[in-house]
Each structure stands twice: as structure tokens, then as C-alpha cells.
Automatic annotation (TrEMBL):
It holds the Pfam family Ig_3. The keyword Metal-binding does not apply. Gene3D superfamilies: Immunoglobulins (2.60.40.10). Keywords: Cell adhesion, Cell junction, Cell membrane, Disulfide bond, Glycoprotein, Immunoglobulin domain, Membrane, Phosphoprotein, Repeat, Signal, Transmembrane, Transmembrane helix. This is Platelet endothelial cell adhesion molecule. GO terms for cellular component: anchoring junction; external side of plasma membrane; membrane raft. Residues 1-26 form the signal peptide. Residues 676-765 are annotated as: Disordered.
Amino acid sequence: MESGPPSLPLLLLLTCLLHCWQGGRGQPSYTIDTVDLTILPSGAVQSGTPVTVRCRVRVSHDNIPHLQHDFQLRLDDVPVHSSTTEDDSIAYQLPRARAADSGSYECRVTVRDKSKASFGRKLHVAGLQTPVLYLSNASPYESEEFTATCSAPEEKGPLVFRFYQMSLPGDPKKIKQPPPSGVSSETTLVLRSVGDSTLYCDYEVNLVSGARRSNRSNEIPVIVKALYISPTMNVLPFLDVFEGDVMEVVCKVVNPPKNIEVFLTKDRRVLKKAPVSLSHLFTAREGDSGTLVCKAEWGNVQKETNKTLTVKELFSKPQLTLQPKDLFEGDRLKMTCSVSIYASERIGNESMRFSIYKDGAKLTDARTYNTTAEPPTNGNYTCRAEATSLSYTDVAKESQALVVKAKVPVSEPVLSVVGGTLVLGKRFQLLCRSDNGTLPIDYTLSSPGRPAETIVVSKPGEEAVFNSSAIRQTSDLSDFLCRAANGENRRSMSVTGRRLQRLSIIEPVSVPVLTVFPGAGDVSGGQNVTLSCSVQRGSLPISFTWFHTETEGPLFFRLSQKREESYSISSIRREQAGEYYCVGDNPANETKRSLRVVIGVKMAGWKKGLIAVFVLCILLILAMILILALKRRLLQFKRRRTGELSVKSASTKAERLSLTQAEVNEAANVTPGMIGKSVWSEHPSGSDSEDQNSVTAPEKPAEPQYAEVQIRQADSNPVAETPETESSEVRPSKQGVPEPADAVSRDTPQFAVGQPGVQRCVYRN
């Protein structure tokens, strides 16, 4: 059975496996096993012994071709040798080991990205090479420079060399130590002591383990020779001379060597220079006193001789004086040129010549100069004095400059108030100032009640400001006096307070007075009230402010050019009653408050009338209610009186009984005990025979009597009864026999209804 071609997924899997196998083959494997370091012949050798330092590495790997090894040798952590090779070992040769090769060695091997170091091995090289000393001149002169060289060529640097001088056996003295260098050191030495001595050198090497010092070098005897080049010096004619004397200074070297030079100096200034010897001529002047130095120089060797010269003044430096010292413009001035000291044995005072100069220009050949001080005379003045010495030499001296500047007299001062405003009753400051006058200027202020006070103005921009106490009235200003002066002997200028310039005087307001119109006290509501606030004194403008104690904040504010202002309240209301006050103020910023005024608000007249009418109405209503109540009580009283009714006989003439509805009702409610008794009201006719009758019932039962009662409703307003108002009648029936009534009780009076408005009352026993 034939197999078909491989499927696509199988081919892809084989391809991936092939790539993975090839990638695994591209990353070789290796490891550094060991790194060994050896020192041959041993770790401790003598100086000059050949030494080999060998480093070997062992690496395990999977047949990596041409594997490179990077070797690095370190001595005390300092690289000393590096090498890259395919070999597994290297050798570092020290043909002649020296002390500088001593230390701890270490080998580090790097293979590709891996590194490993060996254990450290120490090498100790014993012994140092003995140095060798060379001198350029073994017989130098004193202070002569020569060259010395100390070297140890077989050692390894840097080395520290030292040079020694030994004048006596066993007593060496270090004379120089140059800075560290290589294996040799060359330096310059100077020996200043004359005589025999020995020079030698040694060196020192600094290792990690410590410093090592070499043996002494070879010793070289040195003879230091004396150098006789000290110069001789002569000063003629003397060391003490006067100004104008001619001087000569001679300086030379006896038996000089070749190439020697001689210098004459004073105060480090070279006066003259020459080979072997010199002579210097000069005229003695002021300031020539001092030390003269004669110096001989050969190479770097110097010898010197010095002498002190004293030059005395032929005459002192002239002085220019001014009179007067306190000079003002317009004053006469005098300048005098003079000398205080002169050598009388050499010159006479009359032989001296004087001249005066201004700004370098000669004014006069005289000793004095007179003129008037003006601005053109200001300047720098000097004077010159001249005399001839015995040696016929002219000696001239000039004075110091005298600055002449005439003072400007102080002008009349101006007195002013600081700020330009004076508030009466408050402290203030006065400024006293003069427009002209040379500083310093003394200002003195005299004020009432206080001692005089002085202020000195000595710098531009300063001012004389005096603190003054308060004044109460403007006239007090005349008591102030200011004086200005800028010279002790000069007349002072003064000014009084009457002449104060640019002054604004502000008088604080007096206590304001609050007046109420139409008058303080109670006012009627709805009335217009005016509050007038006034002050007696105070500078304008004045601000007035009105306040109400029951109201927060001011009521009204007004800035006025008058001393009285008012505030009106239109139709004052009751809630506006209370305490009022006003406040006055002006630019003096001194606020004054008036006394408080109490305003009461009473009720208006029309309101009182309205209330009176209302009260009267209430009283009338109450009176009517009281009358009705009294009437009711009266009616009750009448009802009690009508408990017994008076009944007229049937034979008598008919009488009318006037009853109200209430009386009828009262009669209707007669109790059984009252049967047989009746009370009749007075007949309106007023008949004397029929005024009032009381009838006693007979012992035998009597027949019921009937009466007709005409009833009208009672008036709501009780009034007196009249014949026209009587509406009830009781009358007997015809024939004197009462008419029977239907269903009438015997004990209760009954009312029979007849004609409209008429009821019949039946009484039964």
C-alpha cells in the first residue's frame, strides 16, 4: 500500500523542531572552574631578584573553538598588567624586583560575560638601593647657590628624597626636602656658614604596608669659602646737615670679584647703581632724613652697609592764616604767611621771601594780603617761603592750601505752622527757616510758659521744627519769637508769631445747643417740629448731625457755612417721641455734642374729640341699658304689688283698667291663695269715688265674675301710662251676671277672647 505525501501540519512541526535544534546549538555552554595565581620563586625575595607572577584559568565548555581569556593582574587593587589570549595562562615577569613591587597580587579572568578572580598572593621584596649624591660645586662661596642631585635609578618611584648637612660628626641637619619625584631629584642648595661640612642624601618609598627608608648615600665633603664683597660707604660732609647743603655718598667694594654690582638705596628706592663703586651727589631736602643703604651683589650673593642721614630744617613749613576765622560776605579779611622755626645760624628772618597765591596764581609778594570777602574771593590760597643757604642754594617751601569760603549771612527767618493749619486748643509744630545763610544755622524759639529751645541745622535738607503747646486764642501767636544765627559774633535775625505765613487758623466748635420749636416738652401728634442746632464759636464750615436715641444711626447730616442749622420733622408721630441731641464738628476734628432734649408726643385734638364722642356714645348705651334694667326691676316690683286685684262691682259703672301685657301675664299667674282678692289699677279718669276699692268676698260662694280686658303689646321703651294707652277693660256682663266660659278652671283666672285686641278674664273661687 503506497503512502501519500506528508500533510502540511506535519511539515510545519518538523520545521519548528529544526529551528529549535539549531537555536540550541547557537548558545554554547561554558563555566569558569578555577583561577590560580602563583609567584615564583617565592613570595619573599631580595631586591634585584627576578620574579615571575603566573595566572592560570580552567574553563569547562562544549567544544567552543577559539575561546578568548581576558587576564588582568592587580597590585593592591591597582592594575599592573592586562592580556587577552586563547591560552589558559599568562606570566608577568619582574626581571629585578624592587621594593615598589611589594604588595598583594590578584588575577581576574573574564570569559565572554563571565568573570572570576583568584585568591590574593603577597610579594615582599626586601632591601632598597643605596642612593648616589652628585654636587655641581664642592667649594662654594657663602650664600652661593649650587646644584645637588640624589638618585636611585634601579628603584621604582615615586621616591621622597632628603638632603642633609653634617658640620660635626654625628650631628646631621636636614637642609632640604623637595616634593616627591621619580627615581632621582635635582635641587638648588645654599650654604651660608663659612667652613667645612659634609653633605649626603637618602630617600623614602611609601607602600601600602608602610614607608621604607633607604640607607645614606655617599658623603661628599664641602668647603664653604668666605666672600669679601661687603662695600664701604662714606657720606660727606656730615651725617647731620641742613636743608640746602650739598651731599655726596661714596659706595665701593675693595678687591671685588668679577661681575659684581653696587647699589645705593633709600626706603627701598634705588638712588644709583654702578659696577664695583659709585658716587652720588644731591642737595639735602626736607624728607631726605633716613637710612642710606649701600649694597654689593655678586650672583645671588649680597652684602650691604648702611648709614643714617639726618637733614634739619633750614626753616619750618610756612603757614597761611586768615583773620577773621568766621568770615562772612562783606567782611574785611587779612591773610598772613609766616614760619615758626628757622635756623638763625644759617639764615636771618629778614632774608626770607614770601608770596601768596590763589588757585595757583600769584596775588602778592608780601607776607600779608588784605581784601573784602565776596563770592569771587572764595578759593584755595597758599603761601610760599624762600631762603638762601650758606651754600648758596635756594630753599623754598609751600604751605598747605587754605580754603576760603565766606559765609552767607543768615536772612530773616520765616515762621510757619507745619501743615499750614493751626487748630486752637491743640498742640502744633512751628517751622523756623531762613532762605539764605551758610550752614550751620542755630534756630532758637521762645514761646510763652516754656524755656527757649535751640535746634542746629547743619546739613542740607534738615529743618528746625519745634513742638509747641496748645493756644486758646489767635492773639497768643504774638508771644512766639524765632531767632536765626550762623555766626558767634553775628547779629541774629528774628521773627514773631504775628508774621506767620500761609496760616489757616481753625477754631474748634463750641458745645452745640439744641432748641425745639414750637417748644420743648409735649407736642401734638401730626404737628411739625423743628430741631435747631447752633454753636457760639467754630471755624466754618461746620457739620451738624442730628440723632434720636431710639433710632440707629444719624437722622440727618448737613455741612453748613453758618453756625446754626435746623432739622424738621413733618407730622410728628408718637413713635418719634424720645430724646434728641445734635453733634457739631469742623476741620478741627473735635466733635462736640449737645445736651439731650426730650420730646413727648400727645394726642391730636380731633382725635380727642372723636374719642370723647365715642366714649359718650358708650356711656349713653350704658345708661339706656341701666334704665332698661331699672324699668325691669320696677315692673317686677309692680307685679308683686298687683298680687291682689281690685275688682269693681257689676252695679258700678264700668271702669277701664289699663294693663300691660306683663301685668296681664302676672295676673294670669295668680296663686290659689290669692283667690277672692284683686287689685285694680287706678282708673285713668281720675275719679275720686272710684280711685281704688278693696272688696272682700262674701262668706258664701259667690258666682264667678267676668271682666273683659283689652290688652296691647307693651312698648319697648317704658313711658308713663295715659288714657290713650289703656287698652284693657274689666266690666261686668249684662244683668250683673257674668257670662260663663268654656272649660274654665275655678281657681285660675281665664281670659276669654272677644273682639280683636280684647281678652276676657274670668276669676273663679
